[in-house]
Fold this sequence. Notes:
Blueprint (H helix, E strand, L loop, with lengths): L2 E4 L11 E5 L11 E2 L10 E2 L19 H10 L5 E8 L4 E6 L3 E4 L5 H11 L4 H9 L3 H10 L3 H11 L17 E2 L1 H13 L3 H12 L15 H4 L4 E8 L5 E9 L5 E9 L5 H16 L4
Antiparallel strand pairs: 1-2, 2-3, 4-7, 5-6, 5-11, 7-8, 9-10, 10-11
Helix pairs in contact: 1-9, 2-3, 3-4, 3-7
Protein name: Beta-lactamase class A catalytic domain-containing protein
Pfam families: Beta-lactamase2
GO molecular function: beta-lactamase activity
Amino acid sequence: MLLSGLCVGAxxxxxxxxxxxxxxxxxxxxxxxxxxxxxVAPSExxxxxxxxxxxxxxxxxxxxSKATTSSTKLSGxxxxxxxxxxxxxxxxxxxxxxxxxxxxFTTASLxxxxxxxxxxxxxxxSNATVTQMLSRSDDNIASSLWVANGGQSIVTRWxxxxxxxxxxxxxxPGHWGSTRTTASDMVKVYRYLMEKASDGxxxxxxxxxxxxxxxxxxxxxxxxxxxxxxxxxxAVKQGWSCCDPTRNLHTTGLVGEEDRYIVVILTSRPSSVSxxxxxxxxxxxxxxxxxxxx
Length: 294
């Protein structure tokens, strides 16, 4: 699930120049290709002021009293870094945890969910291609669909449709992984998937997330966070990026029987922290979240 991007120029032929976001493989955890996605996202996640109120297709959940129980534990899992997290119980229609849920992070490959929705909605890609993009976090497919379907407009179009208050397209139109989002907005993405998407789109996307491979298309180990930290059925979309200049690792998805819970944990840490250590931090955060799940 590495970042990549395309240099989108005035001439369509120039779309073939794609930026990559990963680096050489490490011994314990594969390292993403070094990316050119620098200076687009905030160098550190920031709390953004709430935008002007507007109708939201997906209402924001209200945290329950359980939320404070795990907040301190979760923040402590990423020393020197930042955490933005939310856990939403679909059966009870409430948030169980909301920790810095409106802090803005770069999405890395989480934006592939929006790319997938758009391609399936327009019929511009086969189900098999979208499945590969999501399950293996294939950057080349994401880049191709990003260019074919309008680039930045994919983000603005679906943010409006889903009521994502703080999800914004990348400043550089070629760097899709520098799209910005928050934990609360990512919960809305999953709620849209489960509550409002067509049966066909839901089936393709959820099936792909259930089939997330241990090794991504670039060789990076995707089994951090939810897959290694929560002993329940899952369907996940992971994200990682190296050059913001912080090192970002995100774990998100549906957890539990009948996909009862939506778990979103977004993290960043200094680039001096190894991928292996960062992955362990996110897994520890997911383990701390599991106590909230029945």
